[in-house]
Amino acid sequence: MNKFMGFSIVAGCALLAGCMFTPTHESVSNYAVYDMKDMQNRTPDDVADIYIDTLKTIMSDVRVTRNLPPSPLPEQPGRFRLVNPLGNSGLGALAAANGASLNIPLCEGAYVVVASDTKGMSRWGENTRFYNCLWQYKDGWHLDWYVSFDKQSGGVSADAMASALVQSVTGDSRKNMKTYRENIIRKLNDKGLKTQLIESYPRE
């Protein structure tokens, strides 16, 4: 391929497919909080098993921490809070300068904590991380769902140009942030765990 042909391909990609060649690192997060009632009054282990098995039908990689159930059951459920494990360290500042989000949800007192990474689009510079926290309390269950999406784009490498072309047609994989959650919630409802959305961002 001569230089003129290479330039023509790059220029055509930029004009016709909307490619962006400025290197960019973007981080986007969202969350949803649900109240959940078990319509069949199953044991905590049974509810946890149903929830974990349901996640496995959607996620390709699931890391589960199952803690002791609370006793006695609290009047109010817990809630996640965001923490930066690197704090104000030099590594934290460097990551922030490069556009990476280091905040992760901390779920103190949760009965089940699940983390999952979706790396199917990592070749194209995209990575989605899912965090789920399940609390039991006096009146039922509480489910917190937090997702972070990281995307690197731009540049003139073959992968960068291919990614830009694909995304100009199909969009990026951040749409899965909500799609996966909706699929999980629908499956939980089908299994007798009645869910109600309490709050979310973006607001629904």
From TrEMBL:
Superkingdom classification of source: Bacteria
PROSITE patterns: PROKAR_LIPOPROTEIN
Name the UniProt record assigns to this protein: Lipoprotein
Source organism: Erwinia typographi
